[in-house]
Fold these 2 entries.
Entry 1:
Amino acid sequence: MIHYLDNAATSRVLPEAAEAAVRVMCEDFGNPSSLHKMGIDAARILEDSRAAVAQALSAQPAEVYFTSGGTESINTALFGAARKNRHAGRHIVTTAIEHAATRNACRRLEGEGFAVTYVRPDADGHILAEEMENAMREDTILVSCMLVNNEVGTVLPVAEIGRALKRKNPSALFHVDAVQGLFRLPITPKKWNCDLLSVSGHKIGAPKGIGALYMKRDTRLAPYIVGGGQERGFRSGTEPMPLLAAFAAACRVRAARMDEDVAHVQRLKDYLAEQVGRRLPFAQWNGRGDVPHVVNLSLPGCKSEVMLRVLESRDVFVSAGSACSKGKESAVLRAMGLDKKRIDSALRVSFAPFNTLEDVDALIAGLEAGARMLRR
Ligand code: PLP
């Protein structure tokens, strides 16, 4: 039996999402741009799907654009916003704990002449709204930050950040990377004064390769991808119908059981904390995760890569830092000021609603066995 505890990297597709994809691939397979009945049916599925995703984002359907995932949404938002507002200023504020999609988009913008301030976290992995506000300048045209950190599970104060930005600089745009927050926390861009917001399907039980960008009504960015004018001219290319139908199906399922899912995952996290406290008392928690589905801990003396192999041999799957970092030292843990030994032994455990207490038991047994071997 597999114990998959790496759901912040990606997760299992929900049966309802898989069924929706198969139906659209094998039965309702028309192109929404076609004028015949098959096309009209496909266009209806497209708009029903958009409405389901919009509801998950507390948005109007007209404010939602399908993309290939979190990375494309973030790139579209950041490059689009920077280019749109470059006449007004060349300063961007973000944080030092962003996903590589944001970090590397900002690096590229620096190469294009923009100045970027990377606000650092405290030792717990928290970003203070006050520090974000202090970083905002008269020539700030864009602020981008995540809602939930993917490595340590901290929640960023997006409502305060949005409020401060609009008070200081009303024409600047605010982008939120909500990829790890969807169906863990309510997503309310309007309450956060947020103009642009990115989400991804594969973190919530939809397949990989589908995401969405929320763009507040009247926020017009230049399209990033041009072609046949799909997605109201904003993102050309024949719509990925199976993927977006699956994304919508996953949104419907997750919305209906969000409270139960969050409570269940909280129980798993509490159980993990209790078991680690009793059986691995030398463990150190990295960051004070605010959400239950992402936790990060170091076992001094146990290199993460080696521990991953020990766990893998027992069919337990977690990650060392972020999956995107592929063995590179975690920029997030480094920004939090953790020492190298602690970073080198860091493990990220991330839960999905399908996980069970038995998965946690298997993890703890594997960690105990690994620690016995490696800490000798
Ligand atoms: N932002 C965060 C916080 C993430 O965790 C991820 C995925 O790991 C992304 C963005 C990128 O999303 P995608 O894999 O859909 O491109």
Note: The first helix runs from residue 15 to 26.
Entry 2:
Amino acid sequence: MSGESADQSPAKKTVAPTAQHVSKALLKAGPSLYQIPGYNREAITVGIMHIGVGGFHRSHQALYIDDLLQKHNEKDWAICGVGIMPQDAAMHKALSLQDCLYTLVEQDNNSASARLIGSLTEYIFGYENPALVFERMADPNIKIVSLTATEGGYCFNQSTGALELNHPGIQHDLKNPGSPRTIFGYLAGGLEQRRRAGMPPFTVLSCDNLQGNGHVIRRTLTAFCREISLELARFVETHVSFPNCMVDRITPATTDAQRQYIQDHYGLIDAYPVVSEPFKQWVIEDHFSQGRPPLELVGVQFTNDVAPYEKMKIRLLNATHSAMGYLGYLCGYRYIYEIAQAKEFQPYLQKLMDLEVTPLVPAVPGVNLSDYKGSLMERFSNENIKDQALRICMDGSSKLPKFILPSIKEELERGGPITRLTLCIASWMRFLTGVDEDDQPIPIDDPLAEKLKALALASKTDPRPFLAMTEIFGDLGDNKRFVDELTDLLESLYEKGARATLDEIGSLG
Ligand code: CS2
């Protein structure tokens, strides 16, 4: 990652012991500069299978479960991690060598703490060994299959909400049920085994940033199962619980600089550590047909309706992230903290949240929205986690239809302001041309990268060809007010540049 620095100050420099590889052998030595699991990992049972073990799962859900094991002796909820993508090979290798242990460093502006997390006790590389995933899914002790499949992993049409049956991954899974490539093939296969065996199904818990993530996976999975058998679809619709939940913890992609920092400061050689901010939040709807871990003991909030929490988080945190990512990158910044701290960005971001998003967010029980937005700006400004602008800019084709476009639509319906939200779309389109204002290449990381780039280049200051992607924009391309505002902002970005456009929009009342 360009611009990486091995110095992850401000943690005080400590003299670490001779560095050792992370593995269960370290647990015998007891705590050191870092904490270790204080429970017997041999005596705990897997109760959760998690598909999509990346940085976020390991800084969030796996930590909550580790806390339960650590402080409340809850022995039934260890996690079996599953990777289903070819790129999960690196995680598989690291966790196999490390007895599934890894280092989590929580870092704020004044302190850092490291801990070896032990709640993940198995990891299966489903991409190479799908049969083993199915075998484990038939274990009656596994009561929950949770997911972090990214916003794009749910394969639905952004404007209709329906499962994209023509998606290559979905087509593959329907034709090759024994070796799936998507969450759908795994979930359907696992649930079908249980149905045939007369076993109760596991709960499916989506932990992705989608409004109504439980509703989304229920709808899309049922549609997928309908292609296999009506009995299975009916079983899924009637017997499987799909709680909605809101998840939150900013977790940058793991870098070599972090690996070095952990080795230098804690004496740990970890192939796949994770560094995150100290803040974490999880709000879940409480319907789990097969029971659940008592997560309320470790700070998780249970509620009957998670919708207001999700809307607040996705429309404020994730949307502001996107607004910072594209425009910030075009202005030459590479880290989110630099953008959040930049004086010229603050009025833009504040007004985006206050004027264009806050009016759409319903009252959230126990939350003061001004305080919430203040805490977001503080979290974004945390310079020690070095969250990458390019991490935020990944997969815009599936993130922006969830984070930004719904707010534009709702504002258009109520005749409210959209300029600042629309600047995020304009910046994305400018970003997608693949070349910045200094003629340097911009890396585009999106499954639709080629198509997006071609259309962004064909559009330039006339957004109509780009907006014709109705699978992303729905009918927004027919809205004259939106198209006019987007055209003006694109003209400004191309003619005056990113910084001048930011100044102009930031100074609007
Ligand atoms: C980010 C999220 O991917 C993104 O664009 O906004 O990963 C964000 O960091 C998390 O949702 C924070 O909980």
Note: The CA atoms of residues 109 and 384 lie 6 Å apart.
